[in-house]
Design goal:
Layout: E1 2-6, H1 15-25, E2 29-33, H2 47-59, E3 63-68, H3 78-98, E4 106-110, H4 118-139, E5 142-146, H5 156-166, E6 171-176, H6 178-181, H7 187-194, E7 198-202, E8 205-209, E9 212-216, H8 225-234, E10 240-243, H9 247-250, H10 257-275
Parallel strand pairs: 1-2, 1-10, 2-3, 3-4, 4-5, 5-6, 6-7
Antiparallel strand pairs: 8-9
């Protein structure tokens, strides 16, 4: 496994600063957030800028470990759903453009809608993900669907059902354990079920049970990272463990995105050591 970070926690940080800081800390990879409101919004990136960003990663020996392209697919109206699918396709195209030969980068998103809407939207979600996966397959990239607390797709068994129904190699699970922890689910059991069908992750810290929960910076809450890492390794996961700093944390008046990355690295790197798990870094 590798230890990486997401620019989700760095919406206003210039990408050259984010890359340099994360490389200096020792992260193995950096996920690029490409949605509106972020400095690296895909719509604002010229062809030259996309090449420049990839060169930055390469020069700092930092892996581009995926794209955060959250567009809740099951929006409230047919018009909004069509727009979400259109925008997500542009993120898949961006991933295909920026990836190196031999890579198959993953773009992540959520289902949207509410938990109580699951039975009303599940067939439409399967159809949507099937369409997105088929397009991703033609581009040589992947779709990572993220189960998320408070959305229609939030239970492990429903995730497995979606993967089976879509049945396309370009669809994988973007597995953020925090969304199950705050539902009070047993972490070991969730990892056992979802790690084998996941090719991308997020981790954060958390406290409390939804809806009375907090997402936190690693080291601030109750998350048992050594237990999690051990379970992921046991389940055969060999990809990136990607730290995400939530919007809850970013809303703090004193939020410092670089300090959050530093603390995240220190906590997760120590957890790898405590677990006795050697990171599979490609860095020199």
């Amino acid at each position: 496994m590798k230890l990486s970070y997401s620019t989700w926690g760095m919406p206003n940080v210039p990408i050259e600063v984010a890359v340099q800081h994360c490389a200096m800390l020792g992260f193995d990879g950096l996920e690029l957030t490409v949605i509106p409101g972020w400095a690296t919004d895909a719509a604002s990136l010229s062809a030259d800028e996309r090449k420049r960003i990839r060169r930055l990663y390469d020069e700092h020996e930092l892996e581009l470990c995926g794209f955060s392209g959250n567009v809740p697919l099951m929006a409230a109206t047919a018009e909004k759903r069509a727009e979400a699918m259109r925008r997500f396709r542009t993120y898949l195209e961006l991933a295909a453009e920026m990836q190196h030969p031999g890579e198959a980068l993953i773009v992540t998103t959520t289902s949207g809608a509410l938990p109580e809407d699951w039975h009303d939207v599940r067939d439409a979600l399967v159809e949507c993900l099937g369409s997105m996966a088929a397009y991703a397959g033609t581009l040589g990239v992947g779709v990572g669907i993220e189960p998320h607390v408070g959305t229609a797709l939030h239970r492990p068994d429903d995730v497995l059902w979606v993967v089976e129904e879509v049945n396309h190699p370009a669809l994988t699970v973007h597995f953020d354990i925090s969304h199950f922890n705050v539902q009070g689910m047993d972490m070991d059991e969730v990892v056992r079920k979802l790690a084998p069908v996941s090719l991308h992750t997020h981790v954060k810290d958390e406290r409390g049970i939804a809806p009375n929960h907090e997402f936190l910076i690693p080291g601030e809450g109750d998350m048992d990272y050594p237990r999690y890492l051990t379970g992921m390794q046991r389940a055969g996961y060999a990809g990136h463990i990607v730290v995400e700093v939530s919007l809850m944390v970013q809303s703090r008046p004193d939020y410092d995105p670089l300090a959050a990355a530093t603390q995240s690295y220190q906590v997760l790197a120590a957890a790898f050591e405590t677990s006795g798990i050697q990171r599979a870094s490609n860095r020199a």
